[in-house]
């Protein structure tokens, strides 16, 4: 290997040797970026670890000679560096060039492996389980309790909240041109949707989080509902999460309303206020029958009655209830665990398809997507819907945000997608802290679950089926999932707005969107073709769903990494060529006032490299499911 | 539905109504092309079937009112037309617009369904099994033996060879601008490869098919071999199919040699001539050890000794034998049958992945591809190889042609691919007639097997993994598989060259390449980027192989048909735009001699719509398998 430059490769095994890395390059790319060149053995040891690009505010904690038990290359000698942000390993043997770069936030569990008396080569060391579908094993020399210090330091810094320490997001000194905290402004977003109007009003009843402590401060509710109605409804909805508007269809005025389950309980309690309130929602656009999508399997909804919950019964006139059969957080967690088992470290080859089926991961993806399709289809044909699960912060967020992604092309832009995440996930209280377990050592916590990962997987499935419909690319999705765990940005921290306010996230941490929007080029899909009116209905059948290999199996060096597809590369070249020609044409026309100078004004699309030819007339692609 | 024009839709269910079709359009597109517009109910009955576009030489045999038992729409009333080439059905109900267009050659079996006394609606009729992964059922009125005539006529014309009638390829009067029979000229192809040279000579020993009646007349053999050597070797190789050169590597002179198994038998016979001959092959480029790839599983190769066959033993010094574990024609036939069971008419959704696995179809694809990868890799690194199975006309053809497709970018062009098919499949005696059963009523013939379909599937897998490496598109592959059965062209008729000569195929029938090369635009991949030196190594792992939905599940209207991908569409638009700009630039430069007029000569690629920007420097993409 001679000289090879990899931009934007993060946390991957890399088969080259780090020689030199400049802080400027790191900052320019906005991520850990490694510049690899061939290095002599002599200079290697000198430079080992000296050239890791640390983030501003990131500090070295310890470094140590160590052996990485690589599942693909066997034992690899090298050096590990631990900072307050990352674990970095680099092999010292240039013939086995392995580099690891793992944010401590991605670690879910650190264990000692092998006792003091353990035998066998490399049996004494550390076993690290990661949240991002991989495990890491390191071996140390058995003499002198050599692992004691590294284990304790790693444990403390990987789980700062369990040790009374701040998350790295509060320590980092990163600065970006853009302030990502300005991406989402609830009132502006409602205004974009055409709200308030004569049917829907904006209320600030929750400005002190008194109506519902897991809801945002700004809510949209039926115009006819009074503040005291909202309070009475809140008493009948789990955790006060009342039905509020998430999205309204510009033409037909049908709405997506989200909430938690009604507190029906074993005795089958009724609440006239809740019933009347749902009817106000129905009336707002004269929907004949309001459709209530309960994300849960029927039996689970029934079982919830035992703990005071339940679902809307026949007493809700003018409404029909549909169960979407999506399993709960525990089932999803176990499914991803099974998936990890068949892809890491080795991919089960001989019975790949049936092994994949037995994880049920794609089946769950299918149910989530097909639920969202039903929501989108109903709204698209003019009927208002209510979506809930039990608490309305997991499956409900998946369904409403996916349906909105299908219905509203704005959310398919790079900035619009950020708004969607901020709105449906962050502001509406998806419990990121509990689901991910940021900085918390309690790896077996039953509240943890990959609900957001599953949602991003659904988005990825949509981008695969509609390769020109999304302004952002796969790299954005991968970056989001990596930063979901890293604790480098404030974006995914805490369970809800009120907690975020309390911990001053917006003033004390950096938003992930600051990074993304300072380097938008990296996250743009060159094939993007804006089509504002188009509703996307992905095919939610097993034959059309794929395992997201580039995410779940990316640590495996035997899986071909699809960095940039050759088609994408060709397309970008062609775009550049078009722009070059256009520039030359304009230059020629400046020195020439012939009739062809109309060209630049009439028949040419705009010249930015992300622009597109005039958008085509598409019909809705509605495929049966 | 208002007005909709579908070009190139063939044999599909179409959800529109045929109104008018002009012969010119048919001829222009070169296939059955239907022009659909909305039609009133009144005019419909009048026009039913009057507007089917017949081929020159195609004649009406019978038409009849009939009910098509559509697996997707239920019973559909309409009219069926049978000609000497096709079965055409059109529904008479404009609300259920179903059209079928099936070449009689695609029919493998016609059976009567329900006796004269059978009860139940639509239980009396015809059951038609097709070679192209579908079945058709028609119901007729029970009175007056109404199905007798249609059954007999269909049976006679679907299986003309069983009734002493000519295949339709001998009847059609189609004319094309290009003569596809000129595509492949063996000597020219050898010359392109750099042959003859001082190590390899061309021999005409087989000009009367006396050495081997299933081989072509022109063969390339080691320079040092004498004609009498070849005769002695032929006596020791199954059906006289001696080892001959198929391809030579321009730089390292390593060769791919193909043949049939040696006639070792139970007693373990040796043949010094055969051993010496293989050593001549090895010596030609000083390969240290000649690698013999036996496509079969080891046990099958051993079992073949019982019928006089076998494999090369230790007596072959300087050679190593590797079994590639690919199953025989019977296993492949049963595998595709199982695949048909899970995709037609209904796709098994709930256990899709494990059902797919249980057909083993993708596993067979994987073994064929990975065998070819091993051949290509060996040759690429300078070692000559011999490939055989039992007779050397099924698995051997798959392996050599796929390896050549990986190694030689010429075969990845539209014309080069035709040469590859003509050479490795047609001239080397893949038994198309026996495998497909052209015009033969004996549907249960054990010689039938989808070996060529499997090969085209492997090619499709490669085009998916290398979307810019092939000049041709998926439509070409689909067209080839449709015409494989249709008996409209002479290309895939008969088992070998000698039979083709005897039946005067080249003078009495039209070549499929006449159709293709008269309308090349339709079969070109816009993303194609020529890279002459690149060796393609696809990943032959289950995670990277896909079921070819657009072929195997295309009859199912619930499967989204991927006509042209939006990315492809965008790319073509951009190509057109580039060409437009380039033209304008040239116009401007004609009236202007400014320095920018250098543009057209230096930095611009050529302007044809299939051209590409300057080819990039790629390294070989060699992924472990």
TrEMBL record, chains A, B:
Gene Ontology biological process terms from the UniProt entry: mitochondrion distribution; muscle cell cellular homeostasis; negative regulation of autophagosome assembly; phosphatidylinositol dephosphorylation
Catalytic activity: 1,2-dioctanoyl-sn-glycero-3-phospho-(1D-myo-inositol-3,5-bisphosphate) + H2O = 1,2-dioctanoyl-sn-glycero-3-phospho-(1D-myo-inositol-5-phosphate) + phosphate; 1,2-dihexadecanoyl-sn-glycero-3-phospho-(1D-myo-inositol-3,5-bisphosphate) + H2O = 1,2-dihexadecanoyl-sn-glycero-3-phospho-(1D-myo-inositol-5-phosphate) + phosphate; 1,2-dioctanoyl-sn-glycero-3-phospho-(1-D-myo-inositol-3-phosphate) + H2O = 1,2-dioctanoyl-sn-glycero-3-phospho-(1D-myo-inositol) + phosphate; a 1,2-diacyl-sn-glycero-3-phospho-(1D-myo-inositol-3-phosphate) + H2O = a 1,2-diacyl-sn-glycero-3-phospho-(1D-myo-inositol) + phosphate
Listed Low complexity bias regions: 601-615
Top-rank taxon: Eukaryota
EC code: 3.1.3.95
Coiled coil: none
InterPro entries: GRAM, Myotubularin, Myotubularin-like_Pase_dom, PH-like_dom_sf, Prot-tyrosine_phosphatase-like, Tyr_Pase_AS, Tyr_Pase_cat, Tyr_Pase_dom
Segments forming domain Tyrosine specific protein phosphatases: 359-405
Region ranges (Disordered): 592-625
Single GO MF annotation: phosphatidylinositol-3,5-bisphosphate 3-phosphatase activity
Active site: 389 (phosphocysteine intermediate)
Residues involved in substrate binding: 328-329, 389-395
One Pfam family named in its UniProt record: Myotub-related
The keyword Membrane appears for this protein: yes
Principal subcellular localisation of the protein: membrane
Localization of this protein: Cell membrane; Cell projection, Filopodium; Cell projection, Ruffle; Cytoplasm, Myofibril, Sarcomere
Keywords noted in UniProt: Cell membrane, Cell projection, Cytoplasm, Endosome, Hydrolase, Lipid metabolism, Membrane, Protein phosphatase
Membrane topology: Peripheral membrane protein
GO cellular component, one term: plasma membrane
Residue ranges of domain Myotubularin phosphatase in the record: 180-552
SUPFAM superfamilies reported in the protein's UniProt record: (Phosphotyrosine protein) phosphatases II (SSF52799), PH domain-like (SSF50729)
Family: Belongs to the protein-tyrosine phosphatase family. Non-receptor class myotubularin subfamily.
Designated name of the protein: Myotubularin
Organism: Anabas testudineus (Climbing perch)
């Amino acid at each position: 290997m001679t000289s090879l430059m990899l931009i934007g490769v993060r946390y991957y095994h890399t088969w080259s040797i780090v020689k030199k890395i400049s802080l400027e390059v790191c900052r320019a790319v906005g991520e850990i970026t490694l510049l690899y060149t061939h290095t002599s053995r002599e200079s290697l040891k000198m430079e080992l670890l000296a050239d890791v690009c640390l983030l501003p505010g990131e500090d070295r904690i310890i470094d140590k000679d160590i052996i990485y038990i690589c599942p693909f290359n066997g034992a690899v000698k090298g050096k590990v560096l631990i900072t307050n942000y990352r674990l970095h390993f680099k092999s010292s043997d240039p013939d086995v060039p392995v580099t690891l770069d793992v944010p401590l936030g991605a670690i879910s569990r650190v264990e000692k492996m092998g006792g003091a008396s353990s035998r066998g080569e490399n049996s004494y060391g550390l076993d690290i389980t990661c949240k991002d579908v991989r495990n890491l094993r390191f071996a140390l020399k058995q003499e002198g309790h050599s692992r004691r210090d590294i284990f304790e330091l790693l444990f403390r810094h990987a789980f700062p909240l369990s040790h009374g320490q701040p998350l790295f997001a509060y320590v980092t000194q990163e600065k970006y041109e853009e302030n990502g905290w300005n991406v989402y402004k609830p009132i502006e977003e409602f205004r974009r949707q055409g709200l308030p109007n004569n049917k829907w009003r904006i209320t600030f009843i929750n400005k002190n989080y008194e109506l519902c402590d897991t809801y945002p401060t700004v809510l949209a509710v039926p115009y006819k509902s009074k503040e005291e109605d909202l309070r009475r409804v809140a008493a009948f909805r789990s955790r006060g999460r009342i039905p509020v508007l998430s999205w309204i269809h510009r033409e037909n005025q049908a709405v997506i309303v989200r909430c938690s389950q009604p507190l029906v309980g074993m005795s089958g309690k009724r609440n006239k206020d809740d019933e009347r309130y749902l009817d106000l929602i129905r009336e707002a656009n004269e929907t004949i029958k309001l459709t209530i999508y309960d994300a849960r399997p029927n039996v689970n909804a029934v079982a919830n009655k035992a703990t005071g919950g339940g679902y809307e019964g026949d007493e809700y006139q003018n409404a029909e209830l549909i169960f979407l059969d999506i399993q709960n957080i525990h089932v999803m967690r176990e499914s991803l665990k099974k998936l990890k088992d068949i892809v890491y470290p080795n991919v089960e080859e001989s019975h790949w398809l049936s092994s994949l089926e037995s994880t049920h991961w794609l089946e769950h993806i299918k149910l989530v997507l097909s639920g969202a399709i039903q929501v989108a289809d109903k709204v698209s044909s003019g009927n208002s819907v209510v979506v809930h699960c039990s608490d309305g912060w997991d499956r409900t967020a998946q369904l409403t945000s996916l349906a909105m992604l299908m219905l509203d092309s704005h959310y398919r832009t790079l900035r619009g997608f950020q708004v969607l995440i901020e709105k449906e996930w962050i502001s509406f209280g998806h419990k990121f802290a509990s689901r991910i377990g940021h900085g918390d050592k309690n790896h077996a916590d039953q509240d943890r679950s990959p609900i957001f990962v599953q949602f991003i997987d659904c988005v990825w499935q949509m981008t695969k089926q509609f390769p020109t419909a999304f302004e952002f690319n796969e790299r954005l999705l991968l970056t989001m999932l990596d930063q979901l765990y890293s604790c480098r940005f404030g974006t995914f921290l805490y369970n809800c707005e009120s907690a975020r306010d309390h911990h001053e996230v917006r003033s004390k941490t950096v938003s992930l969107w600051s990074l993304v929007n300072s380097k938008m080029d990296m996250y743009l899909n060159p094939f993007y073709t804006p089509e504002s009116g188009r509703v996307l209905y992905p095919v939610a059948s097993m034959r059309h769903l794929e395992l997201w290999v580039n995410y779940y199996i990316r640590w495996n060096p035997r899986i071909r990494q699809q960095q940039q597809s050759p088609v994408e590369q060709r397309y970008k070249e062609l775009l550049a060529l078009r722009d070059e020609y256009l520039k030359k044409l304009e230059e020629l026309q400046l020195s020439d006032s012939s009739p062809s100078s109309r060209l630049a004004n009439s028949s040419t699309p705009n010249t930015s490299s992300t622009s597109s030819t005039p958008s085509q007339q598409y019909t809705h692609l509605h495929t049966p499911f």
